[in-house]
Amino acid sequence: MARGTVRPARDLCSDCGLCDSRWVAYVRRACAFITQQFETIEARAHGRSRDQDNEDELYFGVFQRMLCAQLASPIEGAQWTGIVSTLGVKALESGLVDAVLCVQQSPDDRFTPVPVLARTPQEVLAARVNKPTLSNNLSVLEQLPGSGIERLLVIGVGCQTQALRAVQDSLGLKQLYVLGMPCVDNVSREGLQTFLDSTSRSPETVVHYEFMQDFRIHFRHSDGSTETVPFFGLDTPRLKEVFAPSCLSCFDYVNASADLVVGYMGAPYQWQWVVVRNDRGQELLDLVESELNTQPVMSSGQRAQAVQQGIDAYDKALRLPRWLAELVGVLVNRVGPKGLEYARFSIDSHFTRNVTWLQRNHPDKVAAHVPAFARKIVSRYRLPKP
Ligand SMILES: Cc1cc2nc3c(=O)[nH]c(=O)nc-3n(C[C@H](O)[C@H](O)[C@H](O)COP(=O)(O)OP(=O)(O)OC[C@H]3O[C@@H](n4cnc5c(N)ncnc54)[C@H](O)[C@@H]3O)c2cc1C
What we know:
Order of helices and strands: HHHEHEEHEHEHEEEHHEEHEEHHEHHH
Bound molecules: flavin-adenine dinucleotide
Helix content: 25-40%
Number of strands: 13
Strand content: 15-25%
Radius of gyration: 20 Å
Number of helices: 15
Structural class: alpha+beta
Shape: globular
Largest sheet: 8 strands, mixed
Oligomer: single chain
């Protein structure tokens, strides 16, 4: 099917790829931006939806275990230490699955995603590192019929996982595993260029970047040098328009319906955060757990005041001068939220921003689109006028 011909979610489309496959037939009930159905997909994936009276589940979704981890021997060129790629490789090598849906990069552009159904460890490793742009991962479902693939591991972000969960029973698979990553503030390839141009000293040589738990963006350049920029120094007036509308209306930051989630936001600086949501998630983690350094999750600091100040500053599109941004960054890093509290800080900041964005841009969608757990979180803050 030709790309881009059918986009029922219109401006809210996250380009997850479902509409580039025959499963476009299910889009009205599968697309996260047309029909929000957290309770249904959580219940289908984990046997129950999250307990909103439990503060950890309210924020992080259904889970059995959370831990902080690093691969003891990190993979060169991975986004963090390469837990995700190693899991993909082991899932193939152990025969747990026949293929891994993951995202390689275009030979012409390191940041242009190329989704694949990887059949070999080499193909999975070629997909390591984030392509920090919208990626139409589910388009490769189109290759499933007749492929002989009966057991599949899908690696992806929340919007992709939600649509996948809605169609999984019609894929003809014997077993599906979902390894999710948290995700916010994704961009189109053009939006990424605006971000790099406005933030890095050398946008054309950036090969890797991450928003880290020390409140700085860490860039790595092709000559091996690194650069860090404080969050508080971002060019907010210019960047406000850069994020994809799908991301400005997303409440699945923590990939609620994945079996296993691997990110960083709930872990201290330089550690990855692992959330086992169900038995299939533990089955996946079992493949690598003996190769991990681990420590328990931790939480410190107080986020609430910083979140409220951030809401007001973002709404006014304030841009701090670099020296002040550096100073605020050092202070916040010293006394600010860490571990799970950092994750809650980030969730609060993004959910409040997104509810405001929806109220202003799609007021007719707010009632059906904002899930109950997000309403509860957002009600703790004073939002700008719609
Ligand atoms: C777009 C994006 C945004 C993210 N935002 C956050 C965040 O806000 N907070 C947080 O805690 N974690 C976030 N993560 C996850 C985090 O950055 C790491 O990817 C994760 O910790 C795994 O690191 P790793 O070294 O184990 O991964 P690697 O071993 O390097 O593997 C990376 C995997 O990501 C997949 N991938 C790459 N680009 C995409 C894409 N565009 N869409 C779907 N899959 C992709 C590849 O297939 C590959 O398997 C994000 C990931 C992505 C892709």
